[in-house]
Write a structure and sequence with these properties.
The complex is a heterodimer. By secondary structure, chain A is an alpha/beta fold. Chain A contains 18 helices and 12 strands. The radius of gyration of chain A is 25 Å and the shape is globular. Chain B folds into 3 domains: 47 residues; 49 residues, no CATH class; 213 residues, MetI-like (MetI-like fold, Orthogonal Bundle), CATH 1.10.3720.10. Classes of the chains: A alpha/beta, B mainly alpha.
């Protein structure tokens, strides 16, 4: 009797214990902390809506998001890393991927992605290229960027300039030079043929935007065989030729180092605008049918353009890594990728979403981006933790060159800055 | 005879009048030049603030383009869209593209509260803690007082940037009264590390040394203890230095950036200077928003300055520091 009583009591305790645990588990889902940058309003609203949908869709994990100011985002991430207080899922810009991976902030995502082969096959190649460092995948973006040249069709036709429609028939350097000269005749007296968005200032835009010119000429920011030295590459013969041509644009009055504002192209004072995808909504509203997207010219043997944007990684200190991946997988669902891309105006990261979007289909307004990203024109940023230093050094050189400084001297200085940083960090040898 | 004296008198009068005219002319010229120079200086110092406020009242497309013209000082096509635009629906405004003004993009009331609360707490707590410390150093015969004083003075020259990271690691391990570990992302992490301030202690100490000890001794004879003497004798006599320290601490911490950046996340506890980085993301910069935010963040500083103008001038002459 006594023994039966205790056995029954133990069984009941086990049942209720398990049930109780179940109740507790159901009531308190595992928290997945998320940090994201405070971008444009629509982008922010889209992410908030997606996270709300995620929390409503299941009860195992709960995403808790914190918005951080974009201008100091990297500093706050580094401070949190020092204090061991990074969130589980982290949003970060393309320039920081390799530095974060090298510093040990992130974990590789290869094993997780291998569990969903359909998703892996659907992600566009440039997203995988951007997230790969030391043969491992550290980040995945829900959208990519597009960089090409926006043209004013009416002005191009008035100047009898050929309008290329694919990456294969992109302008050559001679054609581009001739086009700029011809366009000089059709722009207003207070305008110029090419807007380079120099008003963005010496920052990441200078590297993202103008290093493809270097690469198309046959140069690069660093020797990519081992990422140990920029000397001889960023200041090599091809790079100097590229930046000398670039400086000529300013010297010959084909562009301006000090645009009066951000509206030069929209106001019809420039016939071409060298800038990324983010201007599409406003340019499209301003020019309508007269807006055309032209592929990046072949300055040398091949064309080159930039790639990469904000992307997501799972931190190494995260206590709920599976939850973070579950959330990231949700963010990468086709509907959510489309919602993100619609809000940000960026290029969706999934082939399926791109193919379903008329703008990226053949003949579509943004088809050139699709061609460039999947057709091998887009070049990833150098996959080295030194990239933050590389971009600062190159942007500084571009600034000096645009203002009339000696090209070789400016690039030599950049090479020296980069090589010293690499030496100071012992070649950025892998930490583990 | 009388005609000669009349002639001499008239000449003297004319000469005196001429001298007076000359004096008035010189004085007018002097005053004109003087005021002209002072107005030039006023313009020189005020024009960044004027440009900031005027630019904040312009549509975004005019902010940059007007900078090269006299319109930089004139709020043409004045609008509040950089501040807020709940119903304004004209084309090419921030309201249409969803970005909105600063009140739509940021929780401004919360950020103002955070800045005011953190800064005021540091100032009030600092006045108490630092003056007490200085009182102890100035009045009490403690063993090792000289060493402590030397250490306090040495601490003045240690820049905060050099101790920021160790301090971050420290506060991350500290417990709080609710049982949690780590002070990160809270009000107290922004307040307590700055309550004690070496320069404030030094200012108080210098001032307390000049208050005659006779007052203390008279109070002591009447039965007053150390704290009563501090509260009833020292504090009332030291109001100017309290005002000086309050103003200097307010100005220093209202614009504090590095520490809130390192220790807060999101907008729940962060202050205005860190939140301003929302506008420094991807190019192009929305300078209208930046100017609107900066104008709003400057208002409390101007209010404090106007309220405590007299003390502020005294603090500059007393400490040689203007924040």
């Amino acid at each position: 009797m006594n023994r039966k009583f205790w056995v029954a009591l133990s069984a009941l305790a086990l049942i209720f214990g398990a049930f109780g645990t179940g109740i507790v588990a159901a009531q308190s889902p595992t928290v997945v902390t998320v940090w994201f940058h405070s971008g444009q309003g629509a982008e922010r609203d889209a992410l908030t809506a997606i996270l709300d949908r995620y929390n409503a869709s299941q009860s195992v994990y709960r995403a808790e998001a914190t918005q951080l100011p974009e201008g100091s985002y990297n500093d706050q991430v580094n401070a949190a890393a020092v204090a061991n207080a990074l969130p589980c899922l982290l949003d970060f810009d393309g320039p920081n991927v390799y530095n974060y991976a090298w510093a040990g902030y992130l974990i590789p995502l290869d094993d997780y992605l291998a569990q969903v082969p359909d998703l892996a096959a659907d992600i566009i190649p440039s997203i995988i290229q951007q997230g790969t460092y030391q043969d491992k995948l550290w980040s995945i973006g829900t959208f990519d960027s597009g960089l090409a040249i926006w043209g004013n069709k009416k002005m191009l036709e008035a100047a009898n300039v050929r309008i290329p429609t694919s990456i294969e028939d992109a302008w050559t350097l001679d054609e581009f030079n001739a086009a700029l000269e011809a366009l000089r005749a059709v722009v207003p007296a207070d305008g110029y043929p090419l807007d380079l968005k120099m008003n963005y200032g010496a920052g990441e835009w200078f590297t993202y935007g103008f290093s493809p010119i270097l690469q198309s000429f046959g140069g690069d920011l660093i020797d990519r065989t081992d990422f140990q030295s920029a000397d001889g590459t960023i200041n090599g013969e091809a790079a100097v030729a590229a930046m000398t041509w670039f400086q000529g644009l300013f010297k010959n009055g084909l562009t301006s180092a000090t645009p009066e504002d951000d509206n030069v192209f929209k106001d019809g004072k420039a016939a071409l605008s060298f800038v990324g995808h983010w201007v599409y909504p406003e340019y499209s509203a301003a020019l309508g049918e007269d807006l055309v997207l032209l592929p990046m010219p072949k300055f040398g043997e091949k064309a080159a353009t930039g790639m990469g944007s904000w992307n997501w990684g799972i931190t190494s200190t995260c206590a709920a890594k599976d939850g973070a991946w579950d959330l990231l997988k949700f963010l990468l669902a086709a509907d959510n990728v489309k919602a993100f891309a619609d809000a940000s105006g960026a290029v969706p990261a999934l082939t399926s979403v791109l193919e379903a979007d008329a703008r990226y289909a053949e003949g579509g307004a943004l088809n050139i981006y699709f061609q460039q990203l999947v057709g091998g024109v887009a070049v990833p940023r150098p996959q080295t933790p030194a990239y933050p230093v590389i971009t600062r050094a190159f942007a500084q050189a571009v600034d000096e060159i645009a203002k009339g400084g000696d090209v070789q001297t400016a690039l030599d200085k950049a090479a020296d800055t980069i090589d010293r940083d690499i030496a100071n960090n012992n070649g950025y040898a892998p930490r583990n | 005879m009388s005609s000669i004296s009349q002639t001499v008198g008239a000449e003297e009068r004319r000469a005196a009048q001429a001298r007076a005219r000359g004096y008035r002319l010189r004085r007018t010229l002097f005053l004109t030049l003087n005021y002209g120079f002072m107005l030039f200086l006023v313009g020189f110092f005020v024009f960044p603030v004027v440009i900031m406020v005027v630019s904040s009242l312009k549509p975004e497309r005019l902010v940059s383009s007007d900078m090269r013209t006299i319109y930089a000082f004139i709020p043409r096509e004045a609008t509040l869209e950089n501040y807020t635009c709940p119903d304004y629906q004209s084309p090419e405004t921030k309201c249409v593209d969803g970005a909105g003004g600063v009140f739509e993009r940021l929780p401004m009331p919360r950020l103002f509260f955070n800045s005011v609360f953190v800064t005021s707490s540091i100032v009030l707590l600092g006045l108490f803690v630092n003056s007490m410390a200085a009182y102890a150093l100035a009045r009490l015969r403690l063993p090792g007082r000289g060493i402590v004083l030397t250490l306090v003075i040495l601490l003045i020259i240690v820049p905060f940037e050099s101790v920021a990271v160790p301090l971050l690691l420290l506060v991350n391990e500290l417990p709080w009264i609710d049982g949690t570990i780590s002070w990160l992302n809270s009000y107290h992490v922004q307040i307590f590390p700055f309550a004690a301030d070496a320069f404030s202690i030094f200012l108080f100490y210098q001032f307390f040394l000049n208050i005659p000890r006779d007052f203390d001794e008279a109070a002591r004879v009447d039965g007053a203890g150390g704290f009563l003497i501090y509260r009833r004798i020292i504090v009332p006599l030291a109001r100017p230095v309290f005002a000086t320290v309050a103003i200097l601490q307010f100005l220093a911490h209202w614009g504090s950036f590095l520490w809130p950046l390192m220790t807060t996340r999101g907008f729940e506890f962060t202050t205005l200077p860190v939140a301003m980085n929302v506008f420094f993301g991807q190019a192009p910069r929305q300078w209208g928003d930046v100017m609107a935010f900066a104008s709003l963040a400057t208002v409390p500083v101007l209010v404090v300055f106007l309220l405590f103008q007299r003390w502020f001038v005294q603090s500059v002459s007393a400490s040689g520091v203007k924040g």
